[in-house]
Amino acid sequence: MLLPNAWDHASAHALAAHGFRAVGTTSLAVAAAVGLPDGAAATREETLRLARTLGPGPFLLSVDAEGGFGDDPDDVAELARELHALGAAGINLEDGLGPADRHAAKIAAVRAAAPGLFVNARTDTYWLGDGEDTTRRLDAYVRAGAHGVFVPGLTDPRKIAALVRGLDGVPLNVLHSPTGPSVPRLADLGVRRVSLGSLLYRRALGAAVETAAAIRAGRGPEGTAPSYEEIQSLGRRGRDEGEGTASSG
């Protein structure tokens, strides 16, 4: 499954309108939108605010929660409980190469606090390192209760296939790389979820700057853009869904 990552109401609902049944969030965009650094445990409230906006949507919502915005497993469990109550179907928790036992404790606490929340446990062994210790960390996270595991930065087909075999049925999530295997190839290798991470957000920013620069230079903008009416319809759709959710309760 390809999991695109949104950063606000419009981006999430536009993706859903194009047939994506599950949408993730991207912590980089959440942080960048308010001028804060990503991965610094600084955007807990912003993440909850986005989940409150997207939770009632017509898609399964997976929330990128960095490392849970703290080291205390009980605090991370409370965050997970709140996200699940807001309608999130899953949470992505990254270890940032901190102690594996601490991350495992967070996972166990989240499972106990929000049993219905899908826990995707991310290790940064390839993202921030050379891949060493990947198997040991993932084993610890699965034993703690993770439903799936995420290894961003892993692109070598042979290593991906070997990791899939070692996981013995636990779903593997990898990050799409323009220079790595295609989504169909990753599926053939046994990967169950392919995330786009911050790619869509970064592409959108790049397109905005390129468009402004082109117009300033007297050229017409390239590419396509939704119409004003199409964007407006996304807002109406969201309100209608929110009202439907509220009335059904």
UniProtKB/TrEMBL annotation:
Residues 218-249 are annotated as: Disordered. InterPro entries: ICL/PEPM, Pyrv/PenolPyrv_kinase-like_dom, Pyrv_kinase-like_dom_sf. It comes from the Bacteria. GO terms for molecular function: catalytic activity. This is Phosphonomutase.
